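[User]
If only I could read C-alpha cells as easily as an amino acid sequence. I have put the entry right below:
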Amino acid sequence: MSIAYRPSHADATYDFKYGLRAIQGLGCPVFDKLEADLAKAMLSLPATKGFEFGSGFSGTFMTGSEHNDEFYMDEHGNMRTRTNRSGGIQYDDCSVQGGISNGETISTRIAFKPTSTIGLF
C-alpha cells in the first residue's frame, strides 16, 4: 500500500471521510456526487448556459502534472492543497475526487445568457 496520498485522487478524501484507504481509487461514485448536485442546482437557474468548478474549462488545456492539487500540511497541521484547481471538490481519474469536498473553498463560475425578451425601440 502506498504511504503518500496521490495528488488529485480520492484516496485522501475517502480516508478522511470514511476512514477507508483504498488506492486501488475502489470504484467511482457516479450518482449523488457533490459536484453533480451543485451543477444540477446551478444549471436549474433560468438562463444558465454554463457552469464550471475550479480551473473549469481552462483546466482541459493543462497537463495532468500541471493540474493536480498537491497536498501539504499547513502550520496548524491541516492537510491542504497548494492550488485549488479542483475548486474545492478534489478530482479523481474517473470522477471528482470521489465527489467529496476536500475542505478548500468551493470555487464555481456560472454563465448566464442575456435576456432576449426585451423591447427594441
In short: Residues 89 and 101 are 4 Å apart (CA to CA). Residues 10-112 form one domain. The beta strands are 48-53, 71-73, 79-81, 89-91, 96-101, 108-112.
